[in-house]
Each structure stands twice: as C-alpha cells, then as structure tokens.
Amino acid sequence: MLWVKRLGWGVAALLVLLAVAFASMVRITFNDPAPQPAAPVDRAETVGARSPSGPLIIPVEGVRASQLADSWGDERGGGMRSHRAIDILAPEGTPVRAAAAGIVEKRFESEAGGNTFYIRTGDGRTVHYYAHLATYGVNEGQAVRAGDRIATVGSTGSASGGAPHLHFEIKTMQPGERWWQGVNVNPYPLLARIGDRS
C-alpha cells in the first residue's frame, strides 16, 4: 500500500482501472478469436432424419416405409427435367394424410400436378406439396395436424392414364419465400427412416 500513498488515491485508482481494462482485452484477444466466415451451406443437405420442422409420417394411408421407392432424380418429360419428389403408389381413393402439422397455403388445379395442395409447416420453414390427388379434403387457410386426412390418391394432371399415386415434395423455405419457391429436398430418406411403424 506504500505505492498508493506515494501516488495518491486518484492515480492509484486510475492504474487499477487500466490494469483491469488491459486484462479484459488480453482475455478477449486470446480466448475469443475472431469468428471465421461460415462455409456456404446447401439447404438441401441440412435435413437429417427429421424434416426441418420435425418428425414426418408417411402421407399415404396403409403404405409402409419398406414399400417406398426412391424416384428422386428420375427423368421426367422425356429427359427434359428431373423429378424433385417421390411418387407413392396406392389404389385410387386411398386416403392421403398430412405428413406434418401446418396450414394449407395453396390449393389448386395445375396442368402437371392436377389437384394439388401446398401445406406450410407452423414454423414457416418447410412446404409439403401433394399432387395428382383424386379429391380434396381441406381448404386453403385450414390448419391440419400430422395424420389428418386431407385428400385421396388419384391420377390427375400429367399422371392421367397412369398408375394412381401421390407425388410428394418437400421444400425448405427462407423467410418471405412463397409456396412455389424454396429448395427441394429428397423425401425418401426422411420417410424411409420412419421404419415400418406407420
């Protein structure tokens, strides 16, 4: 304490504050290195055994995981485009169930998809697209829970004359993206991991 008496209380307090400030700067410099820029992430590869919005169910009643086929990437339109979904074969009229909870964002008839739905999950991060439906069971703006009956399997749109099936897509969404946007994710590995419990 002799040094305090020689320098005076004001100067001593200033030196203590400078020492504390210096020590905190050294700790920040050595223990908290500057963050490195993150590598770009392909949103299609960020999905694991669960969809971005939680667990899924197989969206066609009575279909087991072992019956699914991975048609992702198959050629469509005479090789003009790549299939960004899976087709789940089932007899005409088989109930289609909501794969996850959400809100019916868009219901319409398209030339390619026939009778279709886009359902956005509650967190807004995922859209599930159901196409070639025979009948509708819900309306735009309606909330659905996982497993709710929303439609029936059909062969409308470009599937006309072919085997009845559900065309099922998953899209990961960024804030502000609309129902037709997003990045497609292969549903097959997500549904196949469910196992034959459903």
UniProtKB/TrEMBL annotation:
Residue ranges constituting the M23ase beta-sheet core domain according to the UniProt record: 82-172
GO molecular function: metalloendopeptidase activity
Pfam families: Peptidase_M23 (PF01551)
Protein name, UniProt field: M23ase beta-sheet core domain-containing protein
The species this protein was found in: Sphingomonas hengshuiensis
Taxonomic path: Bacteria, Pseudomonadati, Pseudomonadota, Alphaproteobacteria, Sphingomonadales
